Amino acid sequence: MRRVYALSAFIPLAIALEASNAPEVAVFFASVLGVLPTAQLMSDATEALSARAGPGIGGLLNVTFGNAPELIITLFALERGLQEVVKASLVGSVIGNALLVLGAAMVFGGRRGGQAFNRDHATSQSLALLAVVALLTTPTIVHALAGGALPGVGERHHRFAGGLEAVGFALAAALILVYSTALARSVRRRSGRFAPPPRQTEDEEAGWSVRRSIALLAVAAVLVGAMSDILVHSILGASRSVGLSPFFIGVFVVGIIGNAAEHWVAVVVAVKDQMDLALNIALGSSVQIAMLVTPLLVLLSAFLGPHPMALVFNGYEVFALLAAGVMAVLVTRGARATWRQGAALLAVYVALGVASELA
Question: Residue 156's domain spans which residues?
Answer without folding.
Answer: 3-358
